[in-house]
Specification:
The protein has a 9-stranded mixed sheet with strand order 3-2-1-13-10-9-16-4-5, with helices on one face. It has a 5-stranded mixed sheet with strand order 7-18-17-14-15, with no helix packed on it. It has 2 domains: 52 residues, no CATH class; 212 residues, Alpha-Beta Complex (Fumarylacetoacetate hydrolase, domain 2). The chain has 286 residues and is mainly β. The longest helix is centred in the C-terminal third of the chain and has 9 residues. The protein has 4 helices and 18 strands. It starts with a strand and ends in a 7-residue tail after the last strand.
């Protein structure tokens, strides 16, 4: 299934994408797509509904983040060897983890807002893993049991804040609008091979990242198992699994996002996002 949330910010409704690409309203079955609706039992209840019996959503509404009430965002850094190389970092022996503020979450086509004093805002197309069942100390073999589905993410990053301002990476990863997720939560049964997905990023129509999840250093199931050794993964938690080479920081000369740019990120079978890059305006962010 491809589940989604549509409508104005703060007033999104749950929806389902039917086989013809039209949005069907799920409000008669669930109130929203939240951690509580990601369990195997809850997803099975949705799956039993006939999409053609659900109300058709007219027009082209805004698409919101595909999950509401995300408890935490766990990032994985340097998980593609080509990306580690372009940043000058060594290939990690264990996954590099960081936390990203959930207040950074936005809709897949909402604007990327460049923070105040930012000069190095950057893009990162990533496969995101959505947890459906509480996971603690799980094995690699059992990791798939705990995954509700997958979505596209753009791990937007401010490199000066991340690398040059001291502390850990979170301060460069957590600005408002720095975690667009969606457009869809694609349930796990539709993604039987998460390590065989083409992903790319384009800036102003120019493809700058182009890779495959087969190139990950630490694959999805290993990441779920590994992270669960250090923290309990809760329903609704999202793991950002890393980005391939081609980020602005790695370009020669570096190429960072600026107002007026258009960023498009896409993963095969999971959909695409498109964001306009805009300047932070204090009057609009009280």
């Amino acid at each position: 299934m491809k589940l989604l949330r549509y409508g104005d910010i703060g007033n999104e409704k749950p929806g389902l994408l039917d086989v013809s690409g039209q949005i069907r309203d799920l409000s008669g079955i669930i109130r929203d797509i939240t951690p509580a609706t990601l369990s195997p039992v809850a997803l099975q209840k949705i799956a039993l509904a006939d999409p053609l019996s659900l109300p058709l959503v007219d027009g082209k509404p805004r698409i919101g983040p595909c999950v509401s009430g995300v408890p935490k965002l766990v990032g994985v850094g340097l998980n593609y060897s080509d990306h580690a190389k372009e940043t000058g970092a060594k290939t990690p022996k264990e996954p590099v983890l960081f936390l990203k503020a959930v207040s950074a979450i936005s809709g897949p086509n909402d604007d990327i807002v460049i923070p105040q004093a930012s000069h190095k805002t950057d893009h990162e197309v990533e496969l995101a893993v959505v947890i459906g069942t509480k996971a603690s100390y799980v094995s690699v073999q059992n990791a798939p049991i705990y995954i509700a589905g997958y979505c596209v993410a753009n791990d937007v990053s401010e490199r000066e804040f991340q690398m040059e301002r001291g502390g850990n990476w979170s301060k460069g990863k957590s600005a408002d609008s720095f975690a667009p997720i969606g457009p869809y939560l694609v349930t796990a049964e539709e993604v039987p091979h998460p390590q065989a997905l083409h992903l790319f990023c384009e800036v102003n129509g120019v493809r700058v990242q182009d890779s495959n999840t087969s190139e990950m250093i630490f694959p999805v199931y290993e990441l779920v198992s590994y992270i669960s050794q250090f923290m309990t993964l809760m329903p609704g938690d999202i793991i950002l699994t890393g980005t391939p080479a081609g980020v602005g920081m790695g370009a020669v000369p570096p190429r960072f996002l600026k107002p007026g740019d258009v960023v498009r990120v896409s993963i095969a079978g999971l959909g695409s996002q498109e964001q306009n890059v805009v300047t932070y305006i204090p009057a609009l962010h009280v």
